[in-house]
């Protein structure tokens, strides 16, 4: 009889026929307890921490469990993938426990970005997404910036109780935890893993003073993250290690920019205008006439317009248009998981394209 399996990573229905199509897993994978699709397998093996889907029972059990205890929730997001790295509904699950929101990867921000502006934006976005964090801060886990301040906030808000660190994959949760260990514990060999009651998941436990602990919960795969749609090798490109260098384009009406093959921006009306692109330095930007943009993508997505790669094209989501009229000067068009484009003057009409499921939003410029 046909049994239906789903991937513990992204929840997709597993199929064993077509390696190029979504949800593929080899036959041998069906014998395992936890079946994971090839796509998630790649992502999982790129990260160190076990990844589970947000809808996974185990993860919900952990969240419910946290809701029933008293502790501080530390939620890590990638400031370049704010919407893509969001854990929906966390406020509902964690009960009355306070949530400290930490934006990671501040080192990639151009120097001209005002951190306070970014923090204010994070507060507004969080509120819109139904989260009322007790505080918001910015860190670079890779460089160690803001880690001491974050540790102090954690210590203040935890009130002597346990701390649970949550976040989806690729936000830099492991890197953050490793920094925290040095900051709060001072030694590396005090870490233990503890089996969370009623689940198959291990939490990494870092002892704090007065018998409390800091728990690292498993990273979750958010299947609408840009990072989820590209090859493992291209993930590096989407997780820059260096400050973004702005690239300026003077555009005429009806011109289009392609950001690799991952996203596209059509400048429709508003006269000649300069657009400032803050996207990973290694991602190639192609300019074309708007009337040629569709056929260019049909012909060259996966080669000239890359990432994605040729092999990814079957599963890479369609680019979906989002139309905007820029109301205020100095507005950022934010492509979640990629970066943003600053438009300096109001009254411009644009269409921003991103893979289906990937968020595009406007915000007041951070600079
Ligand atoms: P996790 O899946 O949330 O545990 O994320 P990792 O800690 O494995 O990090 C995911 C990717 O982001 C890796 O490529 C890290 O090198 C990178 N990363 C993590 N923290 C930072 C940071 O503060 N700045 C930058 N530029 N990259 C970071």
Characterise this structure.
This protein is an alpha/beta fold and 367 residues long. It has three domains: 1-39, no CATH class; 51-221, Rossmann fold (3-Layer(aba) Sandwich), CATH 3.40.50.300; 243-364, no CATH class. Helices cover 22% and strands 27% of the residues. The chain has eight helices and 19 strands. The chain has helices at residues 38-46, 57-68, 90-93, 115-128, 147-158, 173-185, 232-238, 290-300, and strands at 51-53, 71-78, 99-104, 135-138, 162-166, 192-195, 202-207, 213-216, 219-221, 247-251, 255-259, 263-269, 273-278, 285-289, 319-325, 331-335, 339-343, 349-355, 360-364. A seven-stranded mixed sheet has the order 4-3-2-5-8-7-6, with helices on both faces. Strand 11 and strand 12 (263-269) form a beta hairpin. Residues 47-54 have low confidence and may be disordered. It binds guanosine-5'-diphosphate. Guanosine-5'-diphosphate is lined by residues 47, 49, 104-105, 107-108, 140-142, 167, 169-175, 219, 239-241.
Question: Secondary structure elements and their pairing?
Answer:
Elements: H1 38-46, E1 51-53, H2 57-68, E2 71-78, H3 90-93, E3 99-104, H4 115-128, E4 135-138, H5 147-158, E5 162-166, H6 173-185, E6 192-195, E7 202-207, E8 213-216, E9 219-221, H7 232-238, E10 247-251, E11 255-259, E12 263-269, E13 273-278, E14 285-289, H8 290-300, E15 319-325, E16 331-335, E17 339-343, E18 349-355, E19 360-364
Parallel strand pairs: 1-9, 2-3, 2-5, 3-4, 5-8
Antiparallel strand pairs: 6-7, 7-8, 10-13, 11-12, 11-14, 12-18, 13-17, 15-18, 16-17, 16-19
Guanosine-5'-diphosphate binds at residues 47, 49, 104-105, 107-108, 140-142, 167, 169-175, 219, 239-241.
């Amino acid at each position: 009889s046909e049994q239906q399996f789903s991937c513990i990573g992204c929840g997709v229905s597993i199929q064993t026929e077509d390696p190029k199509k979504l949800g593929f897993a080899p036959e041998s994978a069906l014998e395992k307890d936890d079946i994971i699709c090839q796509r998630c397998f790649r992502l999982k093996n790129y990260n160190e921490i076990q990844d589970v889907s947000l809808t996974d029972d185990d993860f919900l059990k952990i969240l419910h469990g946290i809701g029933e205890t008293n502790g501080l929730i530390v939620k890590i997001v990638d400031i370049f993938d704010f919407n893509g790295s969001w854990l929906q509904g966390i406020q509902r699950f964690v009960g009355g426990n306070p949530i400290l929101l930490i934006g990671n990867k501040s080192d990639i921000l151009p120097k001209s970005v005002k951190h306070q502006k970014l923090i204010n934006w994070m507060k507004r976005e969080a509120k819109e997404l139904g989260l009322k964090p007790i505080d918001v801060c910015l860190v670079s886990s890779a460089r160690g910036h803001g880690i001491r301040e974050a540790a102090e906030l954690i210590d203040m808000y935890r009130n002597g109780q346990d701390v649970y660190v949550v976040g989806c994959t690729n936000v830099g949760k492991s890197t953050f935890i490793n920094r925290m260990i040095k900051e709060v514990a001072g030694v590396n060999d005090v870490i233990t893993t503890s089996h969370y009651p009623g689940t198959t998941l291990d939490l990494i436990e870092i002892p704090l003073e007065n018998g409390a602990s800091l728990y690292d919960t498993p990273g979750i795969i958010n299947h609408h993250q840009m990072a989820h749609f590209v090859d493992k090798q291209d993930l590096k490109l989407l997780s820059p290690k260096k400050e973004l260098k702005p690239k300026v384009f003077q555009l005429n009406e009806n011109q289009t920019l392609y950001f690799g093959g991952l996203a596209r921006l059509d400048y429709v009306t508003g006269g000649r205008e300069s657009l400032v692109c803050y996207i990973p330095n290694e991602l190639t930007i192609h300019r074309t006439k708007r009337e040629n943009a569709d056929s260019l993508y049909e012909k060259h997505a996966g080669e000239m317009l890359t990432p994605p790669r040729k092999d990814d094209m079957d599963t890479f989501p369609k680019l979906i248009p989002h139309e905007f009229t820029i109301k205020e000067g100095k507005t950022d068009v934010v492509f979640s998981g990629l970066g943003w484009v600053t438009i300096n003057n109001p009254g411009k009409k644009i269409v921003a394209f991103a893979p289906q499921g990937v968020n595009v939003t406007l915000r007041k410029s951070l600079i």
